[in-house]
Write a structure and sequence with these properties.
With 368 residues, the chain is of the alpha/beta class. The protein contains 13 helices and eleven strands. The strands form two sheets. The protein has a nine-stranded mixed β-sheet, sandwiched between helices. A two-stranded parallel sheet has the order 1-5. Helix 2 runs parallel beside helix 3 (78-92), helix 5 (159-169) packs across helix 6 and helix 6 (183-191) packs across helix 8 (227-234). It is globular, with a radius of gyration of 19 Å. Residues 36-353 form the Inosine/uridine-preferring nucleoside hydrolase domain. Residues 1-16 form the signal peptide. GO terms for molecular function: purine nucleosidase activity.
């Protein structure tokens, strides 16, 4: 799909710029809560959708102030993801507080021929949007289980511009939960490099440090999808922490956890029903927990029971080493200028108590 066509389609779906988060006025209980932007390759109730539901429940408790939801192609193509995201803000009842901002539809650089070769060489690999045709119009989108959004529209501002404006509005206060390919964030840094000193921190789900990849043999999807964007962000001085496959491989979704969310007769909501459909039998295919670990770690880093730190770089070449993370104990030209913490072990029992609780709370939320 041509960028012009996407721009026209997005404009037709966009809200004429009145949106914005009003939870930061001095009178709001959320004004002093930790500020977050969720930058996501969104899905209805896979890991990104679960993270959004959990984060908005934490908003209802006054523990997190989610300023906006920015969307980037990764798990799926942008048009599908933004439709899922618009429904998510309605489902959770935060459509008047949390705006949805559409971002990059393609990585900073990509080689489709190489991607197809990698797919053929890794038939069990997960390649996200590249595994399906790109939709070009609304009629080609798949509705969430509870239907498309009925009234909520995209914000008019592009995701990267929203990140720039918000970070400048709240200097050194905003954490980016980077749970998709970081294309939007890299574009923001390219447009406005001065924001690097204004972002409080980045918490990623991405990368594979010392374990096999889940896309090609060495690359984790989020970082494999746009390694140039990853490298762009790693090379800044922004404080960064990573939830890589090294830890998510050790946090499996079990049938017991699934049942406590999907099949509790006393706690049925739009979230648990969508969760039941999206994750049916996931536990039988060795599905692990991914993006949702970021919000636990963000709210309390002691959820991580073991971490390591290193100077990080990533292979940006097209081919079987695309997305491979390079881990160094000493400074190396091209790698991150400071050591970056990455998590290798999680307190699973404590995490699942939080996970089950937040995903089974009443919906829609009531914000303070």
């Amino acid at each position: 799909m041509h960028s012009k066509s996407i721009a026209i389609l997005m404009t037709s779906m966009a809200l004429a710029a009145c949106g914005g988060n009003d939870s930061n006025s001095n009178s709001s209980p959320l004004s002093n809560a930790p500020k977050v932007i969720m930058d996501s390759d969104f899905n209805t109730m896979g890991d990104d959708g679960q993270l959004f539901a959990m984060t908005t429940q934490l908003m209802a408790q006054g523990k997190v102030n989610l300023l906006g939801l920015t969307v980037v192609t990764g798990n799926d193509w942008l048009l599908q993801e933004q439709a899922d995201a618009l429904k998510a803000v309605e489902r959770m009842g935060v459509q008047n507080t949390v705006g949805v901002y559409a971002g990059a539809n393609y990585p900073l650089q990509y080689d489709v021929a190489s991607i197809r070769v990698q797919q053929a060489a890794n038939p069990n690999g997960y390649f996200g949007a590249w595994m399906r045709p790109e939709p070009t119009q609304a009629s080609q989108l798949t509705a969430p289980p509870d239907g498309f959004a009925t009234s909520t529209k995209l914000q008019a501002e592009n995701a990267s511009d929203y990140i720039i404006d918000t970070v400048k509005k709240y200097p050194n206060q905003v954490t980016i939960l980077e749970v998709g390919p970081p294309t939007n964030l890299a574009l923001a840094l390219q447009k406005a490099p001065e924001i690097a000193s204004l972002i409080k921190q980045i918490v990623y789900m991405g990368g594979a440090m010392a374990v096999p990849g889940n896309a090609n043999a060495v690359g984790e999807l989020n970082w494999w999808f746009d390694p140039l964007a990853v490298r762009t962000v790693l090379q800044t001085s922004i404080p960064q922490s990573v939830i890589p496959l090294d830890v998510t491989d050790t946090v499996p979704l079990t049938e017991s956890v699934y049942d406590q969310i999907a099949n509790n007769p006393n706690k049925q909501t739009a979230v648990t029903r969508a969760y039941a459909i999206a994750n049916a039998n996931a536990f039988s295919t060795n599905t692990d927990i991914f993006d949702t670990l970021t919000i636990a770690y963000f709210t309390d880093p002691t959820y991580a029971t073991q971490t390591k730190s290193a100077y990080l770089d990533i292979d940006t070449s097209s081919g079987e080493t695309q997305g491979q993370v390079k881990v160094y104990q000493n400074p190396v030209a091209g790698a991150s200028p400071q050591k970056i913490t990455y998590v290798t072990q999680f307190d699973n029992n404590r995490f699942f108590n939080l996970y089950i609780d937040l995903l089974t709370r009443p919906v829609p939320v009531t914000l303070p």
